[in-house]
Amino acid sequence: MTATAGLGFKPQHFEAAVAATVDGLWFEVHPENYMVQGGPRLAMLEALRTTHPLSLHGVGLSLVSEARPDQAHLRRLKDLVDRFEPFVVSEHLAWSVWADVYHGDLLPFSRSRSALDAVACNIDITQECLGRTILVENPSLYIALPGHDFEEVEFLSELVRRSGCGLLADINNVYISASNLHFDPAAYLDALPATAIAEIHIAGHAPDPELGTKLLIDTHGTAVAEPVWDLLDHLLRRIGPRPVLVERDENIPEFASLMVERDRAAFALAAVQPGA
Fold first, then answer.
1. What superfamily in CATH does domain 5-270 come from?
2. Beta strands 206-208 and 212-217, pairing class
3. Below-50 pLDDT ranges, the chain
């Protein structure tokens, strides 16, 4: 698919989304919201894919768990992939399941050699089941955990080498992590393997209610911040055009407001197209 800009799909925007005629517009959905046998959710998705490409962005595989991916979850995910034929499937580099208990969050981990083995194995199992490559998204970090054997970029690069997966570069996550843990976000993006990056996310964040800007929180509840737009331009100049998604999951505005941000991302992509 040509590198264009998309939005996270929200059911309240269904009519506007289906009717939108903007060139290159695509929509991302969380597959866990559509793992059902029928009903209005699947009907909306069927209608949406007749007018726009779709991507699936998972939140439930718990790739960093020591346990292997849940087979029932994988089968339901494969059913969606086969039915809707998304142009990309992605997941988070995090864990959410421990001892068969689902914790409902994307939790951090120490980047140890054993964690690398577990994640690479879980990615292999997922890709084998789906019959396709998946993308893995870098996390947003809030505290410095002990026990790391790898810097994050090294860990991601090794995952790509060992499993053949691609990368989803979430620039908002990079900015948040860099602010919270005090490193250079541009240098982080420069170190990512360019050929592995197959999609980019941008979103909004907010300061912690008590600590303020000493701790940034990945809320997806505000407009994209200017420093994140600057980092998007920086990354695109380095690697060239890739599909860019504008995420918004809280304080969701009207569809037209989201399209303003989507169009800004499309403009950034147009600036790095060959011959631009």
1. Divalent-metal-dependent TIM barrel enzymes (3.20.20.150)
2. antiparallel
3. none
